[in-house]
Design a protein that fits this description.
Layout: E1 10-12, E2 15-17, E3 21-23, H1 38-49, E4 54-61, E5 73-74, H2 81-92, E6 98-103, E7 119-120, E8 134-135, H3 138-157, E9 162-167, H4 172-177, H5 192-195, H6 197-210, E10 215-221, H7 232-244, E11 250-254, H8 278-284, E12 291-293, H9 300-308, E13 314-316, H10 319-323, H11 327-332, H12 350-354, E14 382-386, H13 390-401, E15 405-410, H14 419-422, H15 433-444, E16 448-451, H16 457-462, E17 467-470, E18 474-475, E19 488-490, H17 491-495, E20 504-509, H18 514-525, E21 529-534, H19 549-558, E22 562-564, E23 567-573, E24 576-581, E25 586-591, E26 594-598, E27 602-603, H20 606-611, E28 618-620, H21 630-643
Parallel strand pairs: 3-4, 3-13, 4-5, 4-6, 6-9, 7-8, 9-10, 10-11, 11-12, 12-13, 14-15, 14-17, 15-16, 17-28, 19-26, 20-21, 20-26, 21-22
Antiparallel strand pairs: 1-2, 18-27, 23-24, 24-25
Helix pairs in contact: 1-2, 3-6, 13-15, 13-21
């Protein structure tokens, strides 16, 4: 496969990148005590080794008043220098330039860590942090500018090839640029050229600090997606101003605001790839420096097409290179089909970081563990895996990578476990890439996959294993309140076609994730009258972590799906479901034609009980150990296989 522009070099100020693939800035939560770590160095180095053309690190804070989340890098402290040098040395070993993104989050923060008021252009509270900031004066503005210059010089001293100013989705500078958050009447407020003054003064100070031998980029928000906020026309005008200084080497782009419209910045699979290309396209037509485009690029062909069509000069591929550090190298060498394509599920990246955990990936259990080499097997062993879902396939792949002889028994005629069912609902087809990628990798590694084999203890023993991994999954469990009613069924029954609900359907959501919302959409599309009830305060509450909640609510409204919260099912009688409103203790009855349950499952662990006392080690992973989500199965499959 050939690419017209993806692997052509490009000059960016004093730098030349060997291809157009940018590993753009994103949070990792790998910092400790405000300092970069060896984990950072190994993480970025793996993407450099994998062929990225340019790497831009996560943000580095420029001032002590800026501390919106615990594991932020405090670049205003000189102690960051050893960590900087470790990062840049590790990346430069692969002949890849690396830039540091520097930032002050402004009013998109809180005083929880600093015990200080947050700084912003005007006292306008952010909708997420809900803290009224202090409107900074001329003295504080001078401090901000000096902080940027000091940190930029420190980044240069630490070996970075330049810096990128984060003026986009979570930034004090964006706050000044936006008419929504800048209500000032002095020379930093009012007309756009006044609101842009802080940005231009920072650009001048940073350029002076780093000199002409290092690159300087500016990342701008092209559209805040908020009524009365920054639009593409103003973003283009600001880009022109930055370019006109002659001090900026490239413009990076973004869409949305990291709090109010975050779901459009790190868009899930519900949002089409390339959705933000109107922003770099408009800016590129207005400036003379290279422009970076972002927007859920999953494969190199999409990226190359964006370049060919003139939308941008470089393409930011973040989650694609988290999932597969060799994204660029595999494409360039003609092995694009081997890329572990990102699912855009947001479970282990966006969702995990949002819970203050270190960045991970459902596709790649080694994310954040790049400094720990995969140990070779002490001796070749015969490993039998029962179950071809995510956990079993990951165990098989990792064991085979370590040199073991692996056989997989799968009772169905296809691999994937519950994933194919989950991927068969509206807007979730990309989930199938999880097991498709694993199955393809297993085949390349020579794993012996046997489909249609419901392995019992005899079958396992007959394979003469040295170790066994059980990934037999989970089975639906009828809730106590169903009373054996024949039209109270499980989500899996509907998705597998064993039940075909019609008429009035109540979907019971006790899991708070995609199970209930997905089947509700599927049934609404089939013409059913659908209502979701949940015992939680929000239907699909965990969709907020993966940035799916906003788009779900839009679609639910469009499809006429009703939602009711704080309701606990108490029993079924005469085709009516009794629901207890637990905050008040009031009960009500809902008539139904069908009830579909998204409730907890039971582990399929019969084989475990038969083999647990065998002479060889027997391990359980995923749902047969404890029913959870796919990322748990993948992590456990990998962990068990590493220990074999």
């Amino acid at each position: 496969m050939t690419y017209a522009r993806l692997f052509t070099p490009l000059r960016i100020g004093p730098l030349t990148v060997r291809n157009r693939i940018v590993f753009a800035a994103h949070l990792t939560n790998y910092a400790q005590d405000g300092l970069p770590t060896a984990r950072h160095a190994a993480y970025y180095a793996a993407r450099a080794a994998g062929g990225a053309g340019l790497i831009v690190t996560e943000e580095h804070s420029t001032h002590p008043t800026d501390w919106p989340y615990e594991k932020l890098i405090h670049a205003y402290r000189p102690e960051v220098l050893p960590g900087y040098r470790a990062i840049t040395d590790a990346v430069h070993a692969h002949d890849v330039p690396i830039l540091a993104q520097i930032n002050h989050n402004g009013g998109q923060s809180s005083g929880m860590y600093t015990r200080l008021p947050v700084w912003a252009p005007s006292p306008v509270a952010d909708p997420l942090f809900r803290e009224v900031p202090m409107a900074i004066g001329e003295q504080e503005i001078r401090e901000v500018i000096d902080g940027y210059a000091t940190v930029a010089a420190r980044c240069a001293e630490g070996g970075f090839d330049g810096v990128e100013l984060q003026c986009s989705h979570s930034s004090l500078v964006r706050g000044f640029l936006s008419p929504l958050t800048n209500r000032r009447t002095d020379r930093y407020g009012g007309a756009l050229e006044h609101r842009a003054r802080l940005l231009l003064e920072i650009v001048a100070a940073v350029r002076e600090a780093i000199g002409g031998s290092r690159a300087l980029g500016v990342r701008l928000c092209g559209d805040e997606l908020l009524e009365g906020g920054t639009t593409i026309d103003e973003a283009v005008a600001v880009a022109r101003m930055a370019d006109a200084t002659g001090l900026v080497d490239y413009i990076n782009t973004s869409i949305g605001v990291a709090t109010a419209t975050l779901y459009m910045i790190e868009a899930s699979m519900q949002v089409p790839p390339g959705y933000a290309m109107f922003i770099p396209s408009a800016i590129r037509a207005a400036v003379g420096v290279p422009v970076v485009g972002v927007g859920r690029f999953k494969d190199p062909l999409q990226a190359d097409r964006a370049l060919q069509d003139g939308f941008c000069d470089l393409v930011g591929v973040v989650r694609g290179q988290i999932a597969d550090p060799e994204f660029a190298a595999k494409a360039r060498s003609g092995h694009a089909e081997e890329i572990r394509t990102c699912l855009s599920c947001n479970q282990e990246c966006v969702g995990r970081v949002g819970l203050n955990g270190p960045l991970g990936c459902i596709e790649n259990p080694r994310v954040g563990r790049e400094a720990e080499p995969l140990p070779a097997a002490g001796g070749r062993r015969r490993v039998v895996v029962v179950g071809g879902g995510p956990g079993g396939l990951q165990a098989a792949v990792t064991a085979a990578e370590r040199g073991h002889d692996v056989v997989v028994f799968e009772r169905e005629a296809r691999l994937g476990g519950q994933v194919p069912l989950a991927a068969g609902v509206p807007s979730r087809a990309e989930l199938l890439d999880l097991t498709r990628n694993l199955a393809a990798h297993a085949r390349r590694l020579g794993v012996d996959v046997r489909l249609g084999v419901a392995a019992d203890a005899g079958e396992v023993l007959g394979a003469a294993p040295d170790a066994v991994v059980l990934a037999t999954g989970a089975k639906p469990l009828a809730p106590w309140w169903a009373g054996g009613h024949e039209r109270v069924v499980d989500v899996r029954d509907v998705l597998a076609g064993r039940a075909t609900p019609a008429g009035r359907v109540i979907v019971v959501d006790e899991l708070g994730f995609h199970q209930a919302t997905s089947v509700a959409e599927l049934l609404a599309d089939r013409g059913c009258d659908v209502e979701i009830v949940t015992n939680a305060m929000v239907v699909g509450q965990d969709l907020g972590l993966t940035l799916d909640l906003e788009t779900w609510n839009v679609r639910a409204h469009a499809k006429g799906i009703r939602q009711a919260t704080d309701l606990v099912p108490m029993g079924v009688e005469d085709d009516a479901l009794t629901l207890l409103h637990h905050p008040t203790g009031v009960s009500e009855r809902r008539p139904f034609d069908w009830v579909v349950c998204a409730v907890h499952q039971a582990p399929e662990d019969e084989l475990w009980h038969k083999l647990r006392d065998a002479e060889f080690p027997v391990h359980r992973v995923g749902d047969c150990l404890a029913p959870r989500r796919a990322h748990a199965a993948v992590m456990e499959g990998h962990r068990v296989a590493v220990a074999l």
